[in-house]
Amino acid sequence: MKEELPVENGSQASPGTPEDGTSQGFPEQATKPHDKTPKVADGLAEEPPKGTLNVEEAVDLAVTNINLKLILLFIYVGLSMWSLAIDTLATIFTGEVPYKEWECLPTSLKCAAATTVDVAKATPEVASETVYDQQRMCSNNLKEGLDFVWTSQHTTFAQEWGFYCEAESNVSWISSIFFLGSLLGLLVSTAIFDRFGRKTGALVGAVMSFVATTFSALAPNYTVLFLLRIVMGFGTIVTYTGAYCWMLELTPKSKRNMVSGLNRLNFSASYFVLIGISYWIYPWRYMYAAGAVFNAMAILPLVTLPESPRFHLVRGKEKEAKATLHSISRLAGSNLDLTKVTLVYEVRKQNFLRQLKDFKKYPTMLKETLIAMFSWLLLSAVSYGYSFGWGKMGHDLYTSCTFDALGQSIVFVAAVPICSFLGRKNAIVYFILGSIASNLIAMIDYQIGGTWTVGQIASILGSMHNNGAFLMMYLFIIERAPTTHSGMILSLGSSSARIGSFIAPQINLLYGLTNRRVPLGLYAGMATLSLLGILGMSDTTGKKIPETPEDMEKQRKGGKGEDTVNGIVIENPDVTEKAETTADRDPQKTPLDHQKNGGYVTETECNGIVIENSGIDEGNEVEIEDFKTVTV
Q: Model-level pTM?
């Protein structure tokens, strides 16, 4: 086994508190509270904690409840994510082709003939009527400026650069390419956060998004806007991931579901802001300029917030880490005193090539990872297919998007209790079945009142259900992946979702080429395939998160799980004899002694949820930055 343990001045590290009060950066102890940790009641510690704590334990002591002050703090941090929907979905409005808002030029007999419909048989009192739609424009090859003019008050780059009918695919590519940038940002975000920190990494992403959005308002042509969308996608995902990790790292595990739900509401809030900007601002360049203002606002929290205590410890800055934790504890009302505590932290680097080889060695992990990737790709394609298709599916773009944003807000709030009531797998199945049924019902042509149709209402319900399934996939993948491989598996799953998002705008081109039931049937079919994948996977409700691929193989073959309280694992009956808890450890032993006796409890952090992991696999490396290392 190869490990790198921190030493200073050539001597072996010791677990004791150094005289200067700084952290030695030792590997983190177990994430379960140990005997040295005081009991906490009514939000106040009975006595200052002593000894050694990792960040998880310190956060659990510092934040005993989520009060109004912490909610306001998380809302403030959430401002950094308010540009998320604005950047992601901007082309819904800035690239809209207003096929219902145009009229013929008086000089074009071709246009007049194409748009005049004989209705005398149906309504004898009216000989004919004029109809303006996509089919009449495109099938008759009508040209803007020669045969017709746009009458829409809102201008778009699609109108300005002639992206309609056969050229409309350019708008879809502008929308899709954002997700290529997101995929690239997702792949390198871990390296950015490890090198620069959560806050600084997110700040770099926010600045990139601000610059890209600002210059989008000045884009002289399609190529420039295309490239800027890639930069925008990269910066947006890095900002979102960094800010999200910062929030989770300062939230107790028992409260992370609630904080995650609050975080998702930031997307809905951003969506409402985008709709308002696009409705009240008519020129598309000004829409991007207004979006740049919100991107600038996203920078403010990232400038004023402290860095994550985890990153401080990695850099050997225990004093700063304690200061951040103390500040959070004051907001939470616990006023935690860490003066007699040594904070410890471990940075663990997995052997990437070995992890890939493990997929061949452990068929259950390979099968379930591939199924999860496939299902998540399909659900993402359907979700964003709805988002970028409201101009085709709804009578009015702004009304449809407003109800879509409202539906997302409802499902983000409802997902947690639904998940608790039905369980993880059954909740996803419920949401997918709702999506399938809604898409099938949306094929019905029936007018309700003056503006609404069955298709519009069913499509909004379908979007709600599909977004619920899409959201649940994060938790479903996290809970089934072995802790030793969870970072890689979640990255693969999230990457596949970006591919689905990339495909989504292209699907909506079918609305102009075929009957509207074709894309709806495609959405229903994709949701059905994702459902079949989910049904082929085991449920994770109330089960132990496997620590290694071996544990995953045993668990899927009927191994014992473990009890949970509100979704939190509290006991593992199958822990091997070698795995130690903090209470089992001899405080006189060095980290190296403990490693020889069975291994540390490590964790995979950020990327949604922090997961415990007993033991370090052979072939993996443990590295503590800013310390000299010795190879054992």
A: 0.76
